[in-house]
Amino acid sequence: MIEARELCKNFKDRKRGVVKAVDHVSFNCKAGEVYGLLGPNGAGKTTTLRILSTALKPTSGTAIINGTDVTVDSQKVRSQIGFLSGNTGLYGRLTAREMVAYFGNLYGMEKQAIRRRTDELFDLLDMRNFADSRNEKLSSGMKQKVSIVRSVLHDPPVMVFDEPTSGLDVMSSRTIVDFIKHCRDSGKCVIFSTHIMSEAMRLCDRVAIIHNGRIYREGTVNDLLQATGQNNLEDAFIKIVGE
Amino acid sequence: MQMRNIGTIFRKEVKDTIRDRRTMLFAFVMPIVAMPLLMTVIFKIQMAAVQKIEGKRSEIVIQNIAQLPPELRDSLMTDTTFQIKTEADFAGKTLMDELKLKAFQALVVVPDNFAKAIELESPTDIEIYYDRAEEVSAVAYNKLEEVMSRYRDRVCMSRVVKRQISEDVLKPFEVKGNNVASAKKLAGKMLGGIIPYFLILTCFLGAMSPAIDLGAGEKERGTIETLMVAPATRGEFVLGKYAVVVLTGISSGLLSIASMMGFFKYMANDAAMQQMKAMLNIQLDIQTLLLIFAVIIPVAGIFAAILLSLSIFAKSAKEAQGYVGFLNIFLVLPAFAAMVPGVELNYQMALIPIVNIALIIKNAIAGTIEWNYVITAFVSLFALAALALYFAKRWFEREEVLFRM
User: Fold this and answer.
1) Which of A71, A231, B2, B156 is the most exposed, fewest CB within 10 Å of its CB?
2) One domain for residues B137 and B246
């Protein structure tokens, strides 16, 4: 479903010159699988995910999302993806329902379908009582739920989560984690980035250790633990990156 | 480029903008309320100042008043706008010092034998001391000068009559100034500079607030990323947002004009205002209004494109505001051109954006519409608007601009 092929992304920086934010990154992720990009801040996780979701164009290499090349038909790729990040915001002056409907429209959904799907998801996430309140009045947990509905309204086969729990409290994080499991169980291909090892251990079928724009090691959590002879992912991570 | 997407974006941004109190304040409330308020305040202050000077009695001191011819003395004494004192009122003080200390406004020094000299028809002088730097003093001097001139004219007449010569000999000819300017043209001169300036300013301010919110606001709220991964093109986002900003700019510009016209028509009801109304007795006819409306479209188009470009470049609304404040000077200042004396519409001027519409509106209010210049100006304005919009679109497509966070 997701296939990254030798992705590279260079940024020009006035002080540091050309920065290789993503350096020949390749991996693949199947339907019903959760693939984790694990790395510290500035490792290239966000840039990689932005390339996959076509917000950025790769300097070289490409990625195939559900059969479509991101460098060929970015519009089609976008309609296949649901995107959510921890610092995704909402339009404060719109209500939850209006905000979700706006994105439904942008994703080309029909009015009827938007209403049906919104009701379904609002019920699932227990959002009925604030569906018509303005977003600016919602708590951070409620806001996160609105973001979830926004990302999944068009029922995309691929979900991209960029540090989805960063800055969230325990309850909101739990909502997100449950939602990621829900996506996996309903057969979606899920890729997500995090720097929180415990989250990766709990959720990911496979992880890639990414650092300085490169993938150092890839495999199931158990593979990585065995290969490094460590008994937790954090130590394994340090060992792999330190090599 | 899909119309459906542009429509979706447009509708959402309109809804969002209408619910934004700041934008409402800048784009709609301010032009309606501020304009008449501002004009009233300026006018009232001016009227009050004038009344203060003219309504107040001028205190004058006439030194040696006994030497004034009785007729002149009577005219001065009976004039209620004067309060006449003599040197006796300031015994022990130096009159010249008292004048400088503003104890009174003018000092008339009558020479000895003044009345006699006039009777004997021998030349003589009367001196008036006043303080040019003090408005009240200058007013007193002007009034004194007027009374004395009238008296002098009467003396001349009587001398001529005494010699059995016709009075007409003193009036070889009279200069009659006839004003051929229509009321509309006169008003145009006065209002002509102010109306386009206000129009351009309110248009700018109206476009400013939504532009900041629709560009930098997306970054500040953290919604820009969700837009970038939604299957609408960046061009569609630009056009949808652009249309909203243009519309707001046009609306506030027109509201300010409507509010000003309404103000002149219905609200200015006290005497002083009536006086001004009479001076400005112009009806902005339908042709002029249509022209103003037509002109405001490309202006809003230019403002919106430039504002939106800057806004999307900025990392936050605050940064955007900084750029816009700077921009304000370059975009709105040219509108002052219409108020500068001697700046007239010609082909060169018609090519300079903003300056051209300021001049065109000024002339239109004064009753002249020169279509050759109007067309030239429109070509120049729409070309710039198109260029700015193209630039804005390119800007929206650049990763380093969108993700400059």
Assistant:
1) A231
2) no
